[in-house]
Design a protein that fits this description.
The structure is a homodimer. By secondary structure, chain A is of the alpha/beta class. Chain A contains twelve helices and 25 strands. Chains A, B: It holds the Pfam family NDH2_C.
C-alpha cells in the first residue's frame, strides 16, 4: 500500500461513513498515523439517498470526496480498497490492494441491506443503501414509464406503474412521499399519453405502524400525510417473495409490480476474520464493550452501525442511524487520546437528539426528546437540519438551490436515465445510430 | 409505439440534440404531429462535457429532460428508442421498440467520434461525446491517481499520471486547460504522498496549430496560455496507434500513458437505410440541398452535424458545431410551415456568430466576425454565453454556483468515482465488506 512506517502508532479505520469520518477528524491533531480504507473515494450522506433516486438531487450534492475532508490533516492516508479479511493474530488487514499492519484497528464498516435470507427479493428487488444503487433505482423508475407507453396491455402498464416499497422506516416513508409528489406534480406533464392517475405507491410494513422507531403520534401523523398523498399503506403484512413480477405475502394478498424497493432492514457489514460466533450480536453486529472495544480484543474497536454496544436502554445496541455513529466516532477519538496517554478510557453514552422523517412537500414529523411536532414547521426543521449536517458549503448551496427550485416549480429536474438499468442498450453507445 | 394516427401530418425527428430541439420548438405551434426519437431521455449540452469529466459539474447541470423541454406542446410525442433503419420506400423508421410511419422524416442524429478506422485507439482510448463517456473519463482519471499511489515503479506512476489528449480543437484545448488547473490547484492536496509535479498533460495536434478552425491570433494565444499552464503541445504529429500503454506516432516519438483521450475528429452519425454511396459526403455526412432536404428525397430532411450542405463558403458543409445545428433546426421549422401551406421553402443561410474556447482560469480566446480578443474579458464572455445557452433556470443557477465556488476555492468537488471504469470492483456492491 506504500504507506510509510513511522514511530507513531498506526490506526487503521475501515469505512468512511459517519462513524469513520467523525473519528478521523478527532484524531487529526493527535500523534498518530491514520489510514482510512473505503471502497468508495467519497463519503455518502445516506439520509438523502432517496432524493437521488427520485431525481431531486445529483450524487455530488450528497457525496463528498474523502480526500478533501481530510486533506488538511498531516499523517493521514486514504486508500481506495476492498477489505478481504482481518488477521488479528498478525495485526494485519488484507485487501485487494495488499495488506497493511495496524497498531489499532477500527471497524466503521456500517451496514448493508438485510434480506433476511430471502434470495428472490435480493435478486429481483432494488435497494437504496449506496449512490450507485440509488441511481439504478432512478433509472428503473424512469425506464418503467417509458416502457409503459409501449404496451396496450393495461395489466402490464399497471405493473410498470406500481411501486411497492417494503419497509416503512424513514427511508421507505420518505421515498413513498417523494414518489407521491412526483405522481402529483410531474408525471401527467411528462407522460400526457399515459393515464398516470393509475400510478400506485404501496408501502408495506410488517408491524402495526409506520416509523415504528418513532413515537406513536409521529406514526399516526405520517400515515395520515401518506394517505392524503394517495399512498396505500399495508400494515401487519409480511412480504415473502418477489420473482420480478409478483410480490407474495404471508396472506393471500399479492402485488403485480415491476419495481419492488426493499427498505425493510439493515444488518452489520461484518468483516471476514472476526466472524467468530460469539462476537456477533443480533443484526449481524459486532459486540463491543462500553469503550467500543470489540469483545476479546484490546486493539480492535468498532463504531457506528457495525457496533453492538449493549446498554440498559438499548440491550441490542444503539439504533443503526447517523447520530449514534457520529457520537461513537467522536467519543472513540477522545478515548484514543486517553489510551495513548495511558489514561483510562471513558465509557460511551448516547445522547438521543431525536429523530425525524419528511413526507413530501410541507410535511414532516419530528420527535425531539421532550417535544414532538408535525407539519409545516417540522418540515422546515427537517430541511434545516439536513442542510446543516451536509458536508461542505458548496453542497449546502446546491442542495438549497435545488430544493428551492423544486419547491417553487413542483419539479425535479434530474430525471435523467444516464446509465440504463434494464436492458442496458449499448456498451459502446457511440457505435449506435441515433 | 402506441402513437395515435391523426389527420395532421406526422414529422418524425431522430435525435434530441441542438438541431432536433430547435426544430421541435419551431414546430410546436404548427398543425403537425411531432414524434422525437432519441436513445437518451435528455438533451446534452455538449460544449460543457469536459467539465463533467473533470469533476466541475454534474450531469444534471448540462443535461435536460427532453420531455420537460417539450411538455407544453400539444401533439408532441417522445420515445426512448434506438433507431435501426429507415425504409424510405415504405416511409417507416424501424427501431428497437417497433416501427413508425412518417409523413416527413428529419435526421438530427448528430455526430460520433471519428477514429479514422484506427481500431486500437477506438478500443483503448477514451472519447468524450456523451455523458456516460464523460463520467467514464472522470472515473478513469481519479482511478489512475489512486493506482499510482500503490506502485513503487516510477515508470508506472508516470504512465498513470500522463494524460495524452489527441486533437487540439475546442474540446482538446479546454480539457487540457482543465486538467492543468487540477494539477495546479487540487492534486497536491488530494495526493500529498504522490509527487504530482510529475503529472504531464500532452496535447497532440496533426496540423501546425491548435484551434485550427479559429483565427491564427486565437491559436497563438491559446498555445501561449496552455504552455504557461504547463501543457506540452505537440504540433504536426500524427498519432498512429495506442495499445493501452504506448501511443505511437508517425515519427519516433512515443508516449507511455494509461490514458489517451481522443478528441481528434467527429463524423456524421448516419442511419442505416440511407447509406447509398452517392448520398454520403466527406465526414460521413448526408448530402442535403439548401432546404436541408436529403438529396433525392422530398420527405426526408437532415439538420445539424449530420447534414452536409455544400455552399460557396463551406463546400463540404457547415462546421459541426452547435450554432449551425441550432440555426438549421430553426430554419427547417420555418420551412415546414411554408411547405405545409404550399409556399416555396427558403434556402438556409448560415450566420457565423463566431467561436470561442476557454483555457483554464481567467483565460479564453474569442473570435467574433469583426473582433477577436483573448484573456480575462474573453473568459467572462465565454462564461456568460455558455450560461445563457444552457437550458433551464435551475441549470444556470447550479452551474453558476459551481463555477463561482470553483473559482473562489480553486476547487472542483465532483471528484467522485461513482461507477469505476477500470476493473469495476463489484457488481452487487453491497455484498462486499467495507
Amino acid at each position: 500500500m506504500n504507506i510509510p512506517k513511522t514511530s507513531t502508532p498506526r490506526i487503521v479505520i475501515i469505512g468512511g461513513g459517519f462513524a469513520g469520518i467523525s473519528l478521523a477528524k478527532k484524531l487529526s491533531k493527535q500523534e498518530v498515523q491514520v489510514v482510512m480504507l473505503d471502497r468508495h473515494n467519497y463519503h455518502t450522506f445516506q439520509p438523502l439517498l432517496y432524493q437521488v433516486s427520485t431525481g431531486a438531487l445529483e450524487p455530488d450534492s450528497i457525496a463528498y470526496p474523502i480526500r478533501k475532508i481530510l486533506s488538511h490533516y498531516p499523517n493521514f492516508y486514504f486508500r481506495l480498497a476492498n477489505v478481504e479479511e482481518v488477521v488479528p493474530e498478525k495485526k494485519i488487514v488484507r485487501t485487494d490492494i495488499g495488506e497493511i499492519f495496524y497498531d489499532y484497528l477500527v471497524l466503521a464498516t456500517g451496514s448493508r441491506t438485510n434480506y433476511y435470507g430471502n434470495q428472490s427479493i435480493k435478486e429481483n428487488g432494488m435497494a437504496m443503501k449506496t449512490i450507485p444503487q440509488s441511481l439504478n433505482l432512478r433509472s428503473l423508475i424512469l425506464e418503467n414509464f417509458e416502457q409503459a407507453l409501449l404496451t396496450d396491455s393495461l395489466d402490464e402498464q399497471d405493473a410498470l406503474m406500481n411501486f411497492v416499497i417494503v419497509g416503512a422506516g424513514p427511508t421507505g416513508v420518505e421515498l413513498a412521499g417523494a414518489l407521491a409528489e412526483i405522481k402529483k406534480g410531474i408525471l401527467h406533464k411528462d407522460y400526457p399519453d399515459l393515464d398516470t392517475r393509475r400510478v400506485q405507491i404501496n408501502l408495506i410494513q410488517a408491524s402495526d405502524r409506520v416509523l415504528q422507531e418513532m413515537s406513536p403520534v409521529a406514526s399516526k401523523k405520517a400515515e395520515q400525510f401518506l394517505e392524503n398523498l394517495g399512498v396505500h399503506i399495508w400494515k401487519d403484512v409480511l412480504v415473502t417473495g418477489y420473482d420480478g413480477e409478483t410480490v407474495t405475502t404471508n396472506s393471500d394478498l399479492t402485488f403485480q409490480t415491476a419495481t419492488l424497493i426493499w427498505s425493510a432492514g439493515v444488518m452489520g457489514a461484518t468483516v471476514n476474520g472476526l466472524n467468530a460466533e460469539d462476537l456477533i450480536a443480533r443484526g449481524n453486529r459486532v459486540k463491543v464493550n462500553e469503550f467500543n472495544q470489540v469483545e476479546g480484543f484490546k486493539d480492535i474497536f468498532a463504531v457506528g452501525d457495525i457496533a453492538a454496544m449493549s446498554t440498559e436502554k438499548y440491550p441490542y445496541g444503539h439504533p443503526m442511524m447517523a447520530q449514534p455513529a457520529i457520537q461513537q466516532g467522536k467519543h472513540l477519538g477522545i478515548n484514543f487520546e486517553r489510551l495513548l496517554n495511558n489514561k483510562p478510557m471513558k465509557p460511551f453514552s448516547y445522547y438521543d437528539k431525536g429523530s425525524m422523517a419528511t413526507i413530501g412537500r410541507n410535511k414532516a414529523v419530528v420527535d425531539l426528546p421532550n417535544f414532538k411536532f408535525q407539519g409545516v414547521f417540522a418540515w422546515f426543521v427537517w430541511m434545516f437540519i439536513h442542510l446543516f449536517f451536509l458536508i461542505g458549503f458548496r453542497n449546502r448551496m446546491v442542495v438549497f438551490i435545488n430544493w428551492a427550485y423544486n419547491y417553487i416549480r413542483f419539479d425535479r429536474e434530474a430525471r435523467l436515465i444516464i446509465r440504463p438499468y434494464k436492458n442496458p442498450k449499448t456498451k459502446d453507445e457511440e457505435t449506435q445510430v441515433a
